[in-house]
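Fold these two proteins, one after the other.
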Amino acid sequence: MQTLSNLPQITASHLVKSVNLNHHGTLYAGQMAEWVVEVGFMTARAALRCDPRRLVCIRLHGMDFRRSVPSGETLVLEGRVVHVGRTSLSVHVAAHLVDHPPGEPFPTEGFVTFVHIEEGRATPHGLDVAPPEEGEARRLWDHILEERKRR
């Protein structure tokens, strides 16, 4: 049995360009959502070590925008697995500016949940992970469980 801390984490960077901007001249939310799902997918695939055709995104959730991001900034998105089910896994993605001051909130963070599939149906992925016992990892694990109860 593995622990969440043993699973790979993925980091990707994006330069915010004029093509990524909304009508206010700041990063378009749809573009940020695309980047969050992309990093989530790469993180889930690295954890499962599976064929990309075996993963499907079923939910983008809890994505909060805390500050706008202007053109010219470099965003660093970091993904880590925070919950593992029998056929699914959830990834937390945090996006921060390349020169992010310590203690300042991330401009964006959220969760992406993926399901392992075969022939169009959810199937067990075989990743066996023990729930964390304490700390931030346990808080995020429990957050996903609470969200599932509300659905």
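Now the second one:
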Amino acid sequence: MHYERVHLGDWHRLLLGDLPWTFLLEVVARASFIYILVMFAMRGLGKRVAAQLTVFELSIVVALAATVGVPLEAANKGLLPPVIILVVVIIMQRILSELAFRHHRFDWASSGDVIALMRDGKLLLGCMKKSGLSRERLFAVLRAARIEHLGQIRAMYLEASGAFTLVRAEPPVPGLSILPGFETTLRQEARTHHRFVCASCGALDTQSSRPRSACQACSGTAWTEASGDLTR
């Protein structure tokens, strides 16, 4: 088998391979055409695809990316097949969106369902495990929403798109602090007296002294003092 010698100083091979320099002009034309084609395709798919994506909509975007990548670089690939593929993708998306609108089960199967992560200041650990969401990740999302402890949340949901939805408690009750462990001063300032929460799920105990039994919600045995609002 014959192999050509490789020279490190062969800039033409490194930059263009075996194609002539004039192919760069064709690349500009191909990129412009594909850009306009994808722009109209995204417009045809609707505003929902341009926002937060469901699993079904994300698969469409991945298909579009795979479609437009090859003709941008390969000189021996024509531009007509990507046009046909994009048209087929748009038609399929329209048909499947209509089915999802008419049939809830189909919408659930293609996009997923809403998952409750918290209720009344208490973590739903089973639902969190099902969704693959850690406590640290959840607490980071809550801190970004200016939440200090779980008692400020009445309910929290993980939407089918992957977005988080919060329902704030009015008025808030004492709850498990979500401040980082190194914020000892802030944690001390927010401590309530004689109110305790489960250190695992955040369930608030009704007793005025540290509970000796396991948590009824998650069977956890570790308890900690509840936190109140720092901003009053």
